Every structure is written in C-alpha cells, then in structure tokens.
Amino acid sequence: MSLPTAARLRYTLVAGATAVVIGTGFTVIGLSRHAEAEPTPAAAVASELPSEEATTPSPSITEAPTPSATPTPKKTTTSPKPRKTTTAPKKTKTTAPVPSTGDNVLDAVLQHINAARADEGLAALTLDTKLSKASALHTQLMINGCGLEHECPGEKGLGDRFSAQGVNWSSAGENIGFGSSGSSEAAIIRAANGLTDSMLAEKPPNDGHRKNLLNTGFKRIGLSIVRDSKGITWMTQDFVN
C-alpha cells in the first residue's frame, strides 16, 4: 500500500506511573522521495482598533434668573426607592471540541492494525472509547496549530491525558502522524493505513512506532483519524496495557 505524500510520524513510550518518556522528539520521514516540510499552521493575525483620544467636554454654565419673591417651599415626603439588585450571570464551562472519526474509518484502521498483529502471532487490540477521546482531543490540538507533537503548549503529558479521561493504565505509548489525502471515507482510510504500514516497515534501531503497534503488553488502543480543511489527514494511536 502506498504511503500518502508529505507523511511524517512520531512516537513516544511511557512506562509506569512516573510517566518517564522514552524517545521524545524522535521523527521519521516515511519515503524520503515524497517527504515535504511539515505544514505550517496559519499564522494568527492580531489586529488592533485605532486608539482614539478621549476628550472631556467643557461644562456649559448658565445663570439662573433672580426670583422676585422667594416662595415658601412645600414640605414633601418621598418614599425611598428600592435598590435594584443585579445578579452576575453564571459562568458556563466550555470544553474543547472533540473531533469525531467515522465508525467505518475506525473499524477499517483497527482491523488493519490487528491483522498486522495477527501476522506476528499477537492478540488483537480492543478499541477503548475513553482512550479514543483522549486521542481525539490531542488530534484537535495538533490540527489547531500545535503540529506534530506529543505534548502541545498547555497540554498535560501522555499518561495524565489518559487518566483525565478515566483510563486505567500502567504502561502506555503513542504514535502520531499525518499525510495528505482525498476527502472521501475510502481515501482517509487509505491514508491512515498507509501511515500504519510505514510504521510497521521500520527497522531497528529506529522502529519505535513498530514496537508500539506490536507491543505484547498493550491490550487496548485509542484511535483518532481526522482530515483537516487543508486536506491533511492526522492520526493519533494511543496504547495502554
């Protein structure tokens, strides 16, 4: 299966509750003849409103006419007006969007991964919905401008991200990658499976992605495959025991 153009990959491995990261920053460019530079996210353009100098108008002064006679003021009583009380609006908690991956895409990519594991005599991985949510949140951050990174600015580390979604784990790993693809479901599946094939084709000692995919200790997988508006399909594969 051909690898999509501009494909790039990264992997990381976390062992134990101490969350020691092994191999952070390791990058593999899959098929050098097709390798292109990682897409640069659109730069954020900040605009400022023109400042205006505040001016205070001079108060106008008018002379009151002198009355010919001083009237006796009437005694009036007024009831105190009740104070108007306002309540501050309740703050609503906003959550980051979670990009969805179609069921057909998930099924096809999971089947492709498990077929590779079966060829090595390994048990199939089970898709974990909580882990997949952690994968999807990370995919969105990468698309939003973080780029191909395992930890985006302000984001928790790998193990903490999993725990935040209620995933129990003691060993974990992650593969990430991107490649250009068409917009159809079939094209997205081809892109994701092509990235996976390039991971499986790695040779020691630069075979971190392959080791994650064929790790005998991993039992569950989280998957997120999303095509962005620029035609790039991003994939996050998360693994736990």
Biggest sheet, open or closed, and with what strands and sense?
Answer: 7 strands, mixed
Order of helices and strands: EEEHEHHEHHEE
Distance between the termini: 29 Å
Rg over CA atoms, rounded to whole Å, is: 30 Å
What is the multimeric organization of the chains shown? single chain
Given the C-alpha coordinates, what overall shape results?
globular
Q: Structural class from helices and strands?
A: alpha+beta
Assign a percent range to the helix content. 25-40%
Q: How many extended strands?
A: 7
Mean pLDDT: 75
Strand percentage lies at 15-25%
Uncertain stretches: 1-6, 16-73
Q: How many H/I helical runs?
A: 5
What does this structure look like?
This protein has 241 residues and is α+β, with helices and mostly antiparallel strands. It is built from five helices and seven strands. Strand 6 and strand 7 form a beta hairpin. Helix 1 packs parallel to helix 4. Keywords: Membrane, Transmembrane, Transmembrane helix. Pfam families: CAP.
Brief sketch in words of this structure:
It comes from Paractinoplanes globisporus. The chain has helices spanning 103-119, 129-146, 158-164, 185-200, 208-213; strands at 8-15, 20-22, 27-29, 126-127, 171-180, 220-227, 232-240.
